[in-house]
Inverse folding.
């Protein structure tokens, strides 16, 4: 893979005082790339919802592409996006089964098994054994953007007591989970309120000097520690380097489709003890789409609802106290579980709409992305890891097939899908994902265009 | 292979052994009073038969004189500043305005305590960003306040570029934030940045802003790093006086050492056990120590989940939950510090605290404002009969002898309970109108199989005594139209066959169970050191408990016994 200038880099080169050329003027005649040969950036998103699906109502009946297949009942909320969608069924998670929910998150985020932790008062606790794949990808495609990756969360009712596996999606290392932003106002401020200091304001230079001093002191401390603690401080040093990079890149500029959106007022606070999930999701989706359009980041994870989770979808008539997770374990409440899946897919559709609303040449932000949609179990009632629910939205700039239902045979490894997505977004440098029985070196070519 | 990994593997082996035995053989793990289960303590680092609370002579009819491996203190690992520590330190050094300007995120819990989680947490990129945001927000808020500004800048700068005055700022505030005097190169590093900023903005105060913001991001602030110096006579690391001061201060008042404590470190008085005790006694008299004890037992009783739970009973809401939680926090501090009493009375005291939200649930008149101390009826002995515990460890409408008993087993006796097998739907069937049964009866029906009893017999008998209290802690005599049954056998698995009738009998038995006081000593030891105890510290823990016992189990005496122990002042390096 050759070195390509990022759009951000180009902006920096243009200089803040000079009027920037319009984005369109920089396009090639096909409208798919910059005239200089730079493609639009590709993005990777994991959109996660907890507690699985009802498989008979989730799986499309027929497989094939285009008109050969139709959306299933639980995919109906995504009807407006069928042409951008690929449904993969028939895959199993192949890591050693240790604990329901935990296994699913670990398999889909890292392709490797979990590591049990002392549970204390919790029923179980674990962390990952490998860093999450979005972070591997961010190492490759996130080095020129203001944020190496973003972690977002919609429902706040996540399970924090069972270790990092259930609480977080992105893990910079197995012991360094990345906390997610759950307040849209905070997210907006982080993304869009970076004010360019005037030429004679030394602020960013001084912030950089402070960080360099902090880095030097961190290295000095690290050199005195044993191997385990040295690894902990590696994470700290990585964080310092990333913040330094962010200080030195420009804040969002209104170029091309990039516009600083109206500041949201939604803070993800409960109203009468009830989460405002649909409203929060809508704002988060808008901000995420614009973060991509402004090339502030190229990698994001969205924890729509937590693995297990305490979230309740009361407005579906689930009762004031019935969390989705407790419903899944009640044989008589599977209808409400189905309603919950439908609700989650409606919210997903909203986010895809936001991404599709922003055009990039002849494509949209969604087209230039690969959005992996998955969960922590196949079905909550059984805790199964077989016939895993997997959707991919967007074609990663044409690298992935769309409008397709592909049903894999023989309980194929879910990691094959993950590797296909890594290659589609990050290129052929990704030759393997995962570890142990979860490892894959065989990308699912059936969903790729080449 | 690294030792941490080995320890973790050992834990998973213990857990799987318990699972396998309960699943395959059924009934008790290895038989009545078996030696197998005495190893199943909640400490993943205790491997040998002499380790942990359960092996310290507890439970068995004839306690043997314990034997312990030779003493070796635990490994020193840097702990990342906890949210509470961070905010309190900012408050104490940079003032209340600065403390209000910082945000903290939930801490990582390991083995039920965030202080242990702090020893394995890594600082993530998100944390680094938050640290920077907080650092500048705190610095700006502090300098905006004239009084605080005067305290932080104890010299009069001759101009923006006054390097000597900047050095003074770095030296004085740096000592509080790094919890030790700064080395000359450290002073120069931060003074140079401060002076550069002061010159860049032609403002000395802006320079101070960058100094404060830098110190607050420094690893010397962010990590509670304990290295000690090699002690040839012992063969281990002896913590430096400043490290002891930090350890003591964050343990007892959840904040950075104050000037008096740093002075004690400087003048050598912390080098003696007496000097250390004197400082500990001083800190224990502060309001902050009460808060620290309340927070520790808030964690032990898992009260976080109380204020985040929802119930359909209209008498329960977030405000009521908050009051229930506060009631217990007041009780913890009261038993620990007031009336010079035996800490084990936590389980039997009739002293309670009610406010206008909780009084009606106790059937008491509501006080006009705030919390009032009250004497509750004899049927309400101790913390386990109070609303907070009873509500927190209950289902929505039904009680939960399992959850109530599990807390007693795990948090008050420090013993592990394996998780339910993954294929089990751990749910008690709903009432059957044709076959009327209490919740206890339905639970016993559901868990009657041997594979369930392996673990449920460790939990449920500790919850049955509280069946006289409903899911909001109100007294009741009937459940589902039938009389409630609050009788049981105390701890048959460990050959403790005393029968109890209700909460009064049970809490009296638990109060005098040596495993309870040993577990409390172990818990406070973990809080003090930020790690699990090692087998090789068994003798120390034994001595700590004996010392506490001989001083009437008064809480401050437990703290004294811990801080004076070699395990508190020595460590080993990884």
């Amino acid at each position: 893979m050759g070195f390509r200038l990022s759009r951000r880099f180009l902006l920096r080169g243009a200089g803040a005082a000079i009027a920037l050329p319009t984005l369109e003027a920089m396009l090639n005649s096909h409208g798919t790339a910059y005239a200089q040969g730079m493609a639009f950036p590709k993005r990777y998103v994991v959109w996660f919802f907890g507690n699985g699906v009802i498989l008979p109502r989730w799986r499309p009946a027929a497989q094939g592409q285009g008109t050969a297949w139709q959306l299933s009942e639980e995919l109906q909320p995504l009807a407006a996006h069928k042409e951008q969608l690929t449904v993969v069924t028939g895959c199993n998670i192949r890591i050693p089964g240790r604990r329901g929910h935990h296994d699913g998150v670990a398999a889909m985020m890292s392709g490797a098994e979990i590591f049990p932790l002392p549970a204390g008062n919790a029923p179980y606790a674990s962390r990952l054994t490998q860093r999450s794949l979005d972070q591997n990808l961010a190492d490759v495609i996130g080095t020129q953007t203001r944020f190496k990756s973003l972690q977002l969360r919609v429902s706040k009712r996540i399970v924090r007591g069972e270790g990092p596996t259930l609480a977080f999606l992105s893990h910079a290392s197995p012991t360094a989970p990345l906390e997610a932003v759950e307040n849209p106002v905070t997210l907006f401020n982080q993304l869009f309120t970076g004010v360019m200091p005037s030429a004679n304001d030394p602020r960013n230079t001084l912030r950089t000097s402070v960080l360099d001093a902090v880095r030097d002191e961190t290295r000095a401390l690290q050199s005195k520690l044993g191997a385990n603690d040295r690894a902990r401080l590696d994470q700290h040093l990585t964080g310092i380097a990333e913040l330094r990079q962010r200080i030195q890149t420009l804040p969002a500029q209104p170029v091309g489709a990039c516009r600083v959106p109206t500041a949201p007022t939604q803070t993800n606070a409960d109203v009468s003890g009830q989460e405002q999930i649909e409203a929060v999701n809508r704002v988060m989706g808008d901000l995420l789409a614009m973060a991509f359009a402004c090339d502030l980041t190229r990698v994001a994870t969205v924890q729509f609802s937590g693995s297990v989770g305490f979230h309740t979808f009361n407005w579906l008539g689930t009762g004031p106290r019935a969390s989705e997770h407790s419903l899944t374990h009640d044989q008589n409440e599977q209808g409400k579980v189905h309603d919950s899946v439908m609700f989650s897919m409606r919210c997903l559709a909203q986010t895809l709409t936001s991404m599709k609303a922003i055009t990039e040449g002849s494509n949209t932000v969604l087209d230039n992305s690969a959005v992996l949609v998955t969960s922590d179990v196949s079905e909550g009632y059984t805790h199964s890891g077989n016939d895993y629910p997997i959707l991919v939205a967007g074609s990663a700039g044409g690298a992935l097939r769309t409008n397709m239902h592909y049903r894999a045979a023989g309980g194929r490894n879910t990691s094959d899908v993950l590797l296909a997505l890594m290659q589609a977004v990050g290129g052929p440098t990704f030759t393997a994902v995962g570890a142990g029985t979860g490892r894959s070196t065989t990308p699912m070519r059936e969903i790729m265009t080449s | 292979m690294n030792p941490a990994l080995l320890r973790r593997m050992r834990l998973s082996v213990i857990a799987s052994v318990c699972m396998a035995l309960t699943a395959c053989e059924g009934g008790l793990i290895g038989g009545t009073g078996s030696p197998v289960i005495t190893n199943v303590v909640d400490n993943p680092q205790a491997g040998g038969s002499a380790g942990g609370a359960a092996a310290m002579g507890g439970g068995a009819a004839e306690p043997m004189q314990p034997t312990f491996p030779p003493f070796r203190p635990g490994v020193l690992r840097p702990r990342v500043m906890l949210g509470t520590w961070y905010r309190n330190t900012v408050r104490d050094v940079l003032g209340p305005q600065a403390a209000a300007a910082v945000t903290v995120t939930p801490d990582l819990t390991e083995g039920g305590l965030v202080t242990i989680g702090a020893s394995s947490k890594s600082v993530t990129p998100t944390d680094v960003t938050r640290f920077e945001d907080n650092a500048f927000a705190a610095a700006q808020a502090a300098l905006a306040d004239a009084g605080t500004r005067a305290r932080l800048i104890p010299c009069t700068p001759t101009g923006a570029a006054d390097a000597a005055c900047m050095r003074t700022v770095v030296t004085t505030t740096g000592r509080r934030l790094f919890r030790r005097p700064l080395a000359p190169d450290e002073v120069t590093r931060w003074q140079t940045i401060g002076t550069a900023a002061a010159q860049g903005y032609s403002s000395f105060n802006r320079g101070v802003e960058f100094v404060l913001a830098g110190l607050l991001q420094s690893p010397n602030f962010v990590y509670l790093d304990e290295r000690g110096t090699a002690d040839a006579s012992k063969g281990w690391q002896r913590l430096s006086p400043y490290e002891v001061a930090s350890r003591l201060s964050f343990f007892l008042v959840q904040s950075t050492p104050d000037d008096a404590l740093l002075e004690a470190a400087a003048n050598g008085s912390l080098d003696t056990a007496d000097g250390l005790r004197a400082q500990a006694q001083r800190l224990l008299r502060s309001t902050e120590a009460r808060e620290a004890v309340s927070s520790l037992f808030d964690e032990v009783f898992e009260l976080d989940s109380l204020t985040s739970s929802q119930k359909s009973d209209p008498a329960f809401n977030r405000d009521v939950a908050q009051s229930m939680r506060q009631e217990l926090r007041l009780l913890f501090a009261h038993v620990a510090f007031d009336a010079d009493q035996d800490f084990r009375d936590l389980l039997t005291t009739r002293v309670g605290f009610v406010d206008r939200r909780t009084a009606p649930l106790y059937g008491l008149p509501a006080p006009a404002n705030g919390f009032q101390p009250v004497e509750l009826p004899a049927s309400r002995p101790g913390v386990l009969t109070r609303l907070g515990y009873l509500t927190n460890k209950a289902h929505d409408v039904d009680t939960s002898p399992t959850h109530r008993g599990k807390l007693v087993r795990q948090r008050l006796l420090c013993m592990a309970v394996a998780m339910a097998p993954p294929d089990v739907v751990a749910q008690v069937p709903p009432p059957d109108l044709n076959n009327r049964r209490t919740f206890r009866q339905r639970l016993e029906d559901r868990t009657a199989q041997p594979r369930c009893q392996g673990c449920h017999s460790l939990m449920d008998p500790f919850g049955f005594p509280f069946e006289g209290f409903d899911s909001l802690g109100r007294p009741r005599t009937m459940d589902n139209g039938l009389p409630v049954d609050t009788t049981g056998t105390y701890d048959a698995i460990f050959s403790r066959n005393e029968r109890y009738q209700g909460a009064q009998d049970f809490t009296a038995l638990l109060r005098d169970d040596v495993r309870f006081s040993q577990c409390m000593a172990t818990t406070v030891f973990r809080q003090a050191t930020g790690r699990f105890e090692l087998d090789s510290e068994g003798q120390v823990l034994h001595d700590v408990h004996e010392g506490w016992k001989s001083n009437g189990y008064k809480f401050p005496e437990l703290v004294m016994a811990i801080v004076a122990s070699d395990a508190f002042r020595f460590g080993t390096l990884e």
